[in-house]
Recover the amino acids of this structure.
């Protein structure tokens, strides 16, 4: 992984895609190594300063609606893991939230690490109002276990992964319409937002 990161930084100009077409060109040039390059790019996406939306939409176009879901989830988990572990490494085993966050940090650490930690990270992944990378970093700076974080992240990514791949597939095949893709995206992100807002969970943050 270190070799991949070094390679990406050496070639940072070429490997900083600005559109779905840029990503498609990079992956197609890699040939059989395309999936590995896609996952590696996704893993260090935060540090190359390009949005996850480009990676999410390009998965279905590049790999089809089935493998696209797999590679998107693996890449998204890799990215979340990099952010989580980077923050935990910098904290040198300490809980940054309780050490530097004061009363608010202690409260947030308690929110993420008590008995409902899995459910709460799952909500944070499902509801689209919470930014992906900061959540990973905040979790890494808490006393939350990586296993809980990773499990909730994988499950929380699945609805969006299916929706993004279905949406992208409507452009590359004759199956479905753009409208149906928009409906699926709306359900994948709108329904969790609706359920979260009208539950008691959003009052606990």
């Amino acid at each position: 992984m270190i070799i991949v990161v070094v390679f990406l930084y050496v070639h940072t100009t070429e490997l900083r895609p600005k559109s779905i077409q840029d990503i498609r060109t990079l992956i197609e040039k890699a040939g059989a190594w395309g999936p590995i390059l896609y996952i590696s790019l996704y893993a260090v996406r935060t540090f190359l300063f390009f949005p996850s939306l480009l990676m999410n939409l390009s998965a279905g176009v590049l790999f089809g609606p089935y493998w696209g879901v797999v590679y998107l989830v693996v890449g998204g988990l890799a990215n979340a893991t990099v952010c989580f572990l980077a923050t935990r490494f910098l904290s040198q085993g300490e809980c940054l939230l309780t050490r530097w966050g004061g009363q608010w940090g202690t409260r947030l650490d308690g929110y993420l690490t008590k008995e409902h930690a899995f459910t709460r990270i799952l909500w944070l992944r499902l509801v689209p109002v919470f930014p992906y990378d900061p959540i990973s970093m905040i979790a890494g700076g808490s006393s939350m276990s990586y296993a809980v974080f990773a499990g909730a992240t994988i499950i929380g990514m699945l609805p969006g992964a299916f929706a993004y791949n279905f949406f992208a597939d409507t452009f590359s095949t004759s199956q479905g319409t753009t409208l149906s893709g928009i409906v699926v995206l709306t359900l994948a992100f709108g329904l969790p937002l609706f359920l979260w807002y009208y539950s008691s969970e959003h009052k606990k943050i």
Q: What stands out?
A: Residues 197 and 203 are 9 Å apart (CA to CA). The two ends are 35 Å apart (CA to CA). The longest helix spans residues 52-91.
